[in-house]
UniProtKB/TrEMBL annotation:
SUPFAM superfamilies to which the protein is assigned, alphabetical: CoA-transferase family III (CaiB/BaiF)
Protein name as catalogued: CoA transferase
InterPro entries: CoA-transferase_III_domain (IPR050483), CoA-Trfase_fam_III (IPR003673), CoA-Trfase_III_dom3_sf (IPR044855), CoA-Trfase_III_dom_1_sf (IPR023606)
Lineage, highest ranks first: Bacteria, Bacillati, Actinomycetota, Actinomycetes, Micrococcales
Key word Transferase present: yes
UniProt-listed Gene3D superfamilies: Crotonobetainyl-coa:carnitine coa-transferase, domain 1 (3.40.50.10540), formyl-coa transferase, domain 3 (3.30.1540.10)
Molecular function terms, GO-annotated: transferase activity
Keywords: Transferase
Organism expressing this protein natively: Brevibacterium salitolerans
Entry-linked Pfam families: CoA_transf_3
Amino acid sequence: MDPREQSATPPGPLAGVRVLEVGSVIMAPYAGKILRDMGAEVVKAEPPGGDIGRRIGLLGPGGTSVLSLNLNAGKKSIVVDAATQQGAEEMRRLIGWADIVLTNVLPHRRRRFGLSWEQVEAVNPRAVLVTGQGFASDSAHADAPAYDDVVQAASGLADSYRLRDGVPRYSPYVVADKVCGMSMAQAALAGLHSRGATGTGCWADVPMVDTMAAFTLVEHMGGQTLTPPEGEVGWSRVLAPEHRPHRALDGWVCVMPYSDANWAQFCELLERPDLLTHTHLVDNRARSAAPATYEAVLADYAAGRTCAQIEAECGERGIPAHRVTRIDAVREDPYLSSRPLLEHAVHAEEGEYVHVGSPVVFSGMDRPGPADCGREDADRAEVLRMLDTGGEEAGRTVGSSSHEC
């Protein structure tokens, strides 16, 4: 049986929930992946030529990007040209079918796709519309282009590296797209809960800059949290240049005797009772305020031991510690390779690959297994048959009153 047929209605807590994804690259597709991995039925509506995320980065033997192999696994694809009368009608029918509509189309272009809240509400008043873009839809910057790096810069996240290194930096992964994708999925589920209480849909806007500013400022607002401000921004413990994995004899390791009980056990392990009364190490507050002194003790400890020795010694005493897992070795990592997160899969065109599944496990429910990421428009006939059942008219049975989430 075709792997995608096996996962057409994947089991899970969101089984029966219908999601229309009109998105590109990572943010909205990542939100769609999260919902699909929890059992939702996801239809990916793509423009002619397909989502550009299909062609970004490393490509497999058949021409599909490795990014797309995981982001679009198990989704049904249909190409919709919203600029044509036929495409506009297909989009309207898809909106009528959906419980959740996810999009990262910029606000000024949404109306062209039939994706403004007024248009979605008119077609399906029970739909939950979740929009995501760089800046808030009701702001003066709503239509400003904003990729991940721009969002890191605008939200203060890039500046958090200045607090540590003296210069701003970008994170070495697309943190804004993925965090905001998770926030879109979270907003979609909250919207479904609201619909269950009110009987009507709603619109949730997830501006990336706002989301990442909130993400960054939880700890780094620091003394600016208070009015009037008292103290500097930033959390000293995590901003210290010395706060990093330490070199062991055969690799790198994280050692973290964080609580006072952990520290007492660690000092016993080192046979250094004098550290218990050291001015800069006497308790958690002191150690957090003097990270250079604290980290120097950890670095000296790690330097004379193997990662296995450190894990064993700390493990016996309940002290958190773990070797640094290399990304190029995750497939052989004893823990990660034993989890259902990394699953062996075979793609119809790309051959064998590792499917990155959901990290969440629900009791008493099956996990949706690996499924093919088909080519754009691969499921057109199936999607149109699905719409022909009349499911797209479900939202019309409810009154048109609604509200923003």
